[in-house]
Amino acid sequence: MKTATLASIALAISVSVANAQTIGVSMTNLDKFREMLLNGVVSHGKTISGLKLVTANAEGDNELQKKQVQQFVADKVDAIIMMLSDGDFGSQMTKIAADAGIPLIYINTTPSNLSDLPDNQVVVASDEKDSGTLETKQVCSLLKGKGRVVVLMGEVFHVAARTRTQDIADVIATPECKGLEIVEQQAAYWSRDYADQQMQEWLAAGVKFDAVIANNDEMALGAIRAMKKANIPMKDVVVAGVDATDDALAAMVAGDLDVTILQSAVGQGAAAVDAAVKLVNKEKVPRENNVPFELVTPENIAQYLPKSQ
């Protein structure tokens, strides 16, 4: 993605004066997956005549994101699509949009005030109970139900990190996977570099493990990088992540990554834009709109390579 896309920019898309609609898109930050998500929004927006998208990147700063949304309101956008970094921040965003009467679509991250959303505010995401569950069941299968596991978590306050980590524990509690044991579990903040550092610490401490289960692909890739620097044969360790990013799929093709879960950035982006347009047009949209997760393995990766590009 070009640097210009990361700033607050306007993308005029086949603007029709009579039916022009403007949607503000607020991203909490832009890593590999979030770039894909934003591209999914923008790409689908280009297919809709008379639509203008204005995007903003808050660079991980909640207060900056709040100010950007307030600017969207001041600019009288017709709808707002927002990815939160923290679900607990949703109540503030809901009030700002509700007071202005502007439809709000939460994308990817479910706000903690989900049950209190007004009729013109909805969520487009994937059910996180499926992501960590699919991931861990596949690891359990590859290990034949027995082995030592280390877990790399995202930010502990993030609903996806909490849910995916709980998914891991729930699968390990099942009869067929009770032979798995979590020997270490630490936050690496969705980051490849933090995961690399954490894995180095585990290796230096002599931690023994058969699998790495990460809440996202970036952390899985960081763990792989650290293990390869330590000359650990990747065929001896099962590594799993979530998102099916282009880098993750490349690592799978190379034989380094064993499991990832497609969280369709294209699907979420398109669904969010469609929901925004419907709400602007006073049509009803379900409060929760789930885009299914899909298991990706070396056996079926060929069908997923085009989807992640």
TrEMBL record:
Which keywords annotate this record?
A: Signal
Q: Which InterPro entries match?
A: Peripla_BP_I, SBP_2_dom
- Report the locations given in the UniProt record: Cell envelope
- Entry annotated with the keyword Signal: yes
Q: One GO CC annotation, please?
A: cell envelope
One Gene Ontology term of the molecular function aspect: carbohydrate binding
Q: Where is the Periplasmic binding protein domain?
A: 23-284
The residue ranges crossing the membrane are none
Q: Please list which residues make up the signal peptide.
A: 1-20
Task: Supply the PANTHER family for this chain.
Answer: D-ALLOSE-BINDING PERIPLASMIC PROTEIN-RELATED (PTHR46847:SF1)
Q: Which family does it belong to?
A: Belongs to the bacterial solute-binding protein 2 family.
Protein name in UniProt: Substrate-binding domain-containing protein
What is the scientific name of the source organism? Rhizobium redzepovicii
Q: What is the lineage of its organism?
A: Bacteria, Pseudomonadati, Pseudomonadota, Alphaproteobacteria, Hyphomicrobiales
